[in-house]
Design goal:
Radius of gyration: 14 Å
Strand content: under 5%
Number of helices: 4
Structural class: mainly alpha
Largest sheet: none
Order of helices and strands: HHHH
Length: about 80
C-alpha cells in the first residue's frame, strides 16, 4: 500500500488549519480523503469548493439525497469506502 505524507491536525497552520477546522465543524473530524491533500491547502480548498458546489447546490434537478445515493453507489462499484 502506498504511503502518502499528510499534515496531522495538531500541526496544521494557516490556510490548512482553517480547512481542518471547517471540516471538523461539518463532520466532527477530518476525513482521510482531505488529509491526503494537506500538503497543498490551496488544492484542498478548491476540491472542497467543487464538492460543495456539486453536492449542496440547489441548481440540480437531483435532490441531495439522490446525489449522495449516486456517490455511494459509484464508490461501492469502485471498491472505495468514500
Amino acid at each position: 500500500m502506498p504511503w502518502i505524507t499528510t499534515v496531522p491536525e495538531d500541526e496544521a497552520e494557516g490556510p490548512l488549519k482553517r480547512e481542518y477546522e471547517q471540516a471538523i465543524r461539518r463532520a466532527g473530524h477530518v476525513f482521510h480523503i482531505l488529509k491526503v491533500q494537506s500538503l497543498t491547502p490551496r488544492i484542498l480548498h478548491a476540491g472542497m469548493g467543487l464538492y460543495q458546489a456539486l453536492m449542496l447546490s440547489d441548481a440540480s434537478a437531483l435532490s441531495r439525497t439522490e446525489r449522495e445515493a449516486i456517490a455511494t453507489a459509484v464508490s461501492q462499484a469502485n471498491g472505495c469506502r468514500y
